[in-house]
TrEMBL record:
Name of encoding gene: Dwil\GK21909
Keyword field: Glycosyltransferase, Signal, Transferase
UniProt domain Glycosyl hydrolase family 13 catalytic: residue ranges: 205-560
Family named by the database record: Belongs to the glycosyl hydrolase 13 family. GlgB subfamily.
GO BP terms, alphabetized: glycogen biosynthetic process; intracellular iron ion homeostasis
Domain of life per record: Eukaryota
Name of the molecule in the record: 1,4-alpha-glucan branching enzyme
Originating organism: Drosophila willistoni (Fruit fly)
Claim: Glycoprotein is one of the keywords in the record: no
Reaction equations catalysed: Transfers a segment of a (1->4)-alpha-D-glucan chain to a primary hydroxy group in a similar glucan chain
GO molecular function ontology, one term from the record: cation binding
Keyword Transcription: no
Pfam families the record matches: Alpha-amylase, Alpha-amylase_C, CBM_48
Length: 692
């Protein structure tokens, strides 16, 4: 910080931070110091580039660019290279025929004039490679880090498995032009986490066009208003779920070409869906010939050299966030997906790992603030995340950013102007862990209601959380979805509406519904569901790999199950839709936190108020209660607006949804009124006030 006293660093709205959490006050110096580092970077970028706006559009400078006269300019950043060349179909693969000119700061540039007939020297879909001569004189073939379109050769071509770069410069008439405006940013975010490749019912990779035409309408019908799309950034290893990125500027070609992805996003917008990209800037694939690793012939370039540049658990490379050109590459990458493809926001993968490289993935956090403001925090990563959020929210205030963070770091989801890191939401990652723990390790009558409430409400004040009962993590091979933990092999034999019900299926359907509703209503300020889990998709996810003979059997979604009127999956699907529609009507996700008035261990009942609604959950495996008192601060007449016991949802129809419940002005459970309700075992009922 150039000798400045950290306490003198200007943080515009830091007072708001301490108003919300006085326990942060002892760490004011460190908060100001971190903010000062960010300001220093912004100042440096402004002095050298004119500002973050220009700095974050490097994709207009680097890579391959066709000029108005049809000449082509290619630029790369390869600081460790002795020489750089461009080769490909255009020069019959003569590796050294077209050398780049060396510029300052590790930059290289090549001008290719137009052909004699005025046509460009490189054609659309022609294959190219960057050739690097390292310091020992060895020639190495690479893909450009700025490649927009890379494709794996088909097996029958016998050309190996490495991806190839193809020039993406289609004729103007073939470029997709968006037809629809982006929908307004949702006040209540109901996220459908999805993967285009496994969205196909057939045992193969699904396509962008299929997703747009077949899956987007399903998502809209279910009442979601946002999709979070995984595995878009190109990744050579399909089974990595998109988390081992090899080409950061290329959309995955398994599912189609760039224009088809643009159409998919446009169709989502036409259906009122916000579209978030699952962005992976926490690490990168170790692939060399078709990845970023050792691009310039050295072990550093985009990454730290030595152990600091290796993620041993993920077997991947770690970015050097203090390198000027690395910041340019990553910040421009965020802007690229927004400007080129019209993504509306980002879910940042691996934030906890970025911030705490010294900790194991599963290593817990005690909540001691010294953990968050001490020496074990990687402040380079922290600075990058602050810059990224500052850029994105300055570029477009409607952008949404979500942090995959399990640490609970204070200020992560507060604005940069307050000294925060600037995310809009963090994932409530403790919630799915709690549900799996209960289902795996405890019988129903052992569930502790206070512990359930604590897990669902234990989040930082004024820092938004995305609640979810399960995500893609729980669906992966080696784990089980909630539906499979609940019903397991009986899902194969007893999900027909024509067959006799079993205790296991009855219990499974009942708990699947109330687990999701209490998570939705109590767990956060946004809600997330992974594709297929809304209807209890059986089995697990397992991508084609050597260990399963490259099978796609478990790398797909069996939509036929939920579409079959004779199967009970439809009950879970209908409840999921009704739950989302009720939230749309009353808006509990953006109405402030719930007030929990009741959590009774013996009765296994939890009751709370939120958004003018009264929620009553009975987790008891056998016992039902008549005339059960539930406190409320709002006097009036109440009626059930959602019952998990409704026959439409596979319930037993024990709730009279037409019944009226008049409040009693006597205080109860710390509230000024109460109503009396029937609470059947393993049900959730939501009551709304229909009159004063």
């Amino acid at each position: 910080m150039g000798g400045r006293d950290a306490m003198q660093v200007e943080v515009k709205d830091i007072a708001k931070l301490f108003e919300q959490d006085g326990y942060l006050k002892p760490f004011e110096r460190e908060i100001r110091r971190r903010h000062g580092v960010l300001q220093d970077w912004l100042g440096k970028i402004k002095d050298s580039e004119g500002g973050l706006d220009q700095f974050s559009q490097a994709y207009k400078y680097y890579g391959l660019h066709f000029q108005p006269d049809n000449s082509v300019i290619a630029r790369e950043w390869a600081p460790g290279a002795r020489d750089v060349y461009l080769t490909g179909d255009f020069n019959n693969w003569h590796w050294e025929a077209h050398p780049f000119k060396k510029l300052d700061y590790g930059k290289w540039e090549l001008h290719l004039p137009a052909n004699a007939d005025g046509s460009p020297p490189i054609k659309h879909l022609s294959e190219i490679k960057v050739i690097i001569r390292n310091q020992s004189g060895q020639l190495l073939d690479r893909l450009s880090p700025w490649a927009k379109y890379v494709v794996q050769p088909p097996k029958e071509a016998n050309q190996g498995v490495n991806y190839k770069q193809y020039v993406w410069q289609p004729p103007v008439a073939e470029r997709y032009q968006p037809q629809h405006k982006r929908p307004a940013r949702p006040k209540s975010l109901r996220i459908y986490e999805c993967h285009v490749g496994i969205a196909s019912q057939e045992p193969r990779v699904g396509t962008y066009d299929e997703f747009a035409d077949r899956i987007v309408p399903r998502i809209k019908k279910q009442g979601y208003n946002c999709i979070q799309v995984m595995a878009i950034m190109e990744h050579a290893y399909y089974a990595s779920f998109g988390y081992q990125v090899t080409s950061f500027y290329a959309a995955s070609s398994r599912c189609g070409n760039p224009e088809q992805l643009k159409r998919m996003i446009d169709v989502a917008h036409a259906n009122g869906l916000y579209v978030l990209l699952d962005v992976v800037h926490s690490h990168a694939s170790k692939n060399v010939q078709d990845g970023l690793n050792q691009f310039d012939g050295t072990n550093s370039c985009f990454f730290h050299d030595g152990p600091k540049g290796e993620h041993s658990l993920w077997d991947s490379r770690l970015f050097n966030y203090m390198e000027y050109e690395v910041l340019r590459f990553l910040l421009s990458n965020l802007r690229w997906w927004h400007d080129e493809y019209n993504f509306d926001g980002y879910r940042f993968d691996g934030v906890t790992s970025m911030l705490y490289h010294s900790r194991g993935i599963g290593e817990g956090f005690s909540g001691d603030y010294n953990e968050y403001f001490g020496l074990n925090v990687d402040t380079d990563s922290l600075n990058y995340l602050g810059l990224a959020n500052h850029l994105l929210h300055t570029l477009d205030p409607e952008i949404i950013t979500i942090a995959e963070d399990v640490s609970g770091m204070p200020t992560l989801c507060r604005p940069v102007s307050e000294g925060g890191i600037g995310f809009d939401y963090r994932l409530g990652m403790a919630i799915p862990d709690k549900w799996i723990e209960l289902l795996k390790e405890q019988s129903d009558d052992e569930w502790n209601m206070g512990n359930v409430v604590h897990t669902l409400t234990n989040r930082r004040w004024m820092e938004n959380t995305v609640a979810y009962a399960e995500s893609h993590d729980q669906a992966l091979v080696g784990d089980k979805t909630i539906a499979f933990w609940l019903m397991d092999k009986e899902m194969y034999t007893h999900m027909s509406t024509l067959s006799d019900s079993t205790l296991i299926i009855d219990r499974g359907i009942a708990l699947h519904k109330i687990i999701r509703l209490i998570t939705h209503a109590l767990g956060g300020e946004a809600y997330l569901n992974f594709m297929g889990n809304e209807f209890g998709h059986p089995e697990w996810l397992d991508f084609p790999r050597v260990g399963n003979n490259d099978s796609y059997h478990y790398a797909r979604r069996q939509w036929n199950l939920v579409d079959d009127e004779l199967l009970k999956y439809k009950y879970l699907n209908e409840f999921d839709r009704a739950m989302n529609q009720l939230e749309e009507r009353f808006g509990w996700l953006h109405s402030g936190p719930a007030y929990v008035s009741w959590k009774h261990e013996g009765d296994k009942i939890i009751a709370f108020e939120r958004a003018g609604l009264v929620f009553v959950f009975n987790f008891h495996p056998q016992q039902s209660f008549t005339g059960y008192r539930v406190g409320t601060n709002w006097a009036g007449t109440y009626q059930a607006v959602l019952s998990s016991d409704d026959p439409l949802f596979g319930g037993h129809n024990r709730i009279d949804t037409q019944g009226k419940h008049h409040s009693n002005p006597e205080g109860y459970a710390g509230r000024s009124n109460f109503i009396e309700v029937y609470a059947p075992s393993r049900t959730a009922v939501v009551y709304a006030r229909i009159s004063d």
